[in-house]
């Protein structure tokens, strides 16, 4: 069998991305909460923030799924090619 695909990101990079996402969400939430506008405006902005967050997660998932699909397809194609090459004998004489 083949070796598992290695992770391309480090734990520190993952932690940095998670902390950055958390800080941005908290900062924007506090900004919305302390805006000098009516509660309807705050609610509208909060719904917009939640929509933006869910859209970002969905986009990240779709991109990841496409990359994994491409990797799986290329591995299947590589396995087929390896099988064909292993079965091919260039010195074999065909009897007609």
Topology:
Blueprint: H1 11-33, H2 39-87
Helix pairs in contact: 1-2
Summarize the structure.
The protein is mainly alpha-helical and 96 residues long. Helices cover 75% and strands 0% of the residues. It is rod-shaped, with a radius of gyration of 26 Å.
Summary tags:
mainly alpha, 0% strand, 96 residues
What features would you describe in this structure?
The chain is mostly helical and 96 residues long. 75% of the residues lie in helices and 0% in strands. It contains 2 helices and no strands. α1 packs antiparallel against α2. The protein is rod-shaped. The model has no long low-confidence stretch (mean pLDDT 85).
Fraction of helical residues: over 70%
- Contiguous helical run count: 2
- Compute the number of strand runs: 0
Poorly predicted ranges (pLDDT <50, ≥5 residues)?
none
Principal-axis shape equals rod-shaped
| Structural Rg | 26 Å
End-to-end distance, in Å? 37 Å
């Amino acid at each position: 069998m083949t070796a598992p695909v290695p992770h391309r990101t480090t734990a520190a990079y993952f932690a940095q991305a998670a902390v950055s996402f958390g800080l941005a969400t908290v900062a924007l939430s506090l900004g919305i909460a302390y805006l000098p506008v009516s509660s309807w405006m705050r609610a509208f902005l909060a719904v917009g923030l939640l929509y933006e967050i869910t859209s970002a997660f969905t986009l990240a998932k779709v991109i990841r799924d496409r990359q994994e699909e491409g990797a799986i397809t290329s591995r299947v194609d590589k396995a087929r090619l390896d099988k064909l090459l292993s079965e091919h004998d260039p010195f074999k004489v065909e009897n007609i």
